[in-house]
């Protein structure tokens, strides 16, 4: 009886270790391992799920020949929407291999969104006005 209980406790301990390792492996960035994201329960929605249009977590205004905010920090999985309202047309083009997916058309007036699925620092510019630059940090 006692032997049996000891054995199952050991099995349980092994499972906990495995689960902990698994969780640590999933968190990706070791620096962020301590800050576990607290997820709020999703509110029950009666509206139809939109697959195309994701909710914007950050809006970057594109006007007066600049992005504002030029530097911003978001969380993995969040979506940034650039809102173009300048006199001149602009775009959003990622700098470097990692930011290759960031590639908007040239927009006069309108919006363009991008969802960041990997943590990192993403730099971008306007290919028409390379002095216009911005950075999105994804944690
Ligand atoms: Cu521009």
3D architecture notes:
The protein is α/β, with parallel strands linked by helices. It has a domain of 81 residues: Sandwich (Immunoglobulin-like), CATH 2.60.40. The strands form 2 sheets. Strands 2-1-4-6 form a 4-stranded mixed beta sheet, with no helix packed on it. Strands 3-8-7-5 form a 4-stranded mixed beta sheet, with no helix packed on it. A hairpin with a 2-residue loop joins β1 and β2. The longest helix has 25 residues. The relative contact order is 0.17. Copper (II) ion (CU) binds next to loops. One of its GO terms (molecular function) is copper ion binding. Pfam families: Copper-bind. Its main location: periplasm. Its cofactor is Cu cation. InterPro entries: Amicyanin (IPR035668), Amicyanin/Pseudoazurin (IPR002386), BlueCu_1 (IPR000923), Cupredoxin (IPR008972), ET_Amicyanin (IPR052721).
User: From the 3D coordinates, which CATH architecture of the domain at 58-138 would you assign?
Assistant: Sandwich
CATH homology-level superfamily of the domain at 58-138: Cupredoxins -  blue copper proteins
Q: Based on DSSP secondary structure assignment, what is the total number of beta strands? A: 8
Q: What structural category arises from helix and sheet content? A: alpha/beta
**How many alpha or pi helices?**
1
User: Quick one: overall form?
Assistant: globular
Report how far apart the termini are.
50 Å
Q: Residue ranges: pLDDT <50 for 5 or more in a row? A: 1-36, 47-51
Signal peptide: 1-23
Binding site for Cu cation: 90, 126, 129, 132
Cofactor: Cu cation
Protein name: Plastocyanin
């Amino acid at each position: 009886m006692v032997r049996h209980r000891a054995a199952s406790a050991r099995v349980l301990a092994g499972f906990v270790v495995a689960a902990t390792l698994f969780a640590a492996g999933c968190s990706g960035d070791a620096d962020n391992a301590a800050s576990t994201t607290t997820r709020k329960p999703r509110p029950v929605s009666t509206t139809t799920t939109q697959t195309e249009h994701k909710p914007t977590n950050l809006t970057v205004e594109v006007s007066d020949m600049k992005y504002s905010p030029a530097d911003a920090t978001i969380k993995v999985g969040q979506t940034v929407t650039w809102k173009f309202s300048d006199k001149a047309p602009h775009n959003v083009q990622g700098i470097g291999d990692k930011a290759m997916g960031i590639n908007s058309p040239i927009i006069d007036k309108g919006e363009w969104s991008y969802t960041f699925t990997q943590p990192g620092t993403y730099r971008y510019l306007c290919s028409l006005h390379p002095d216009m630059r911005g950075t999105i940090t994804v944690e």
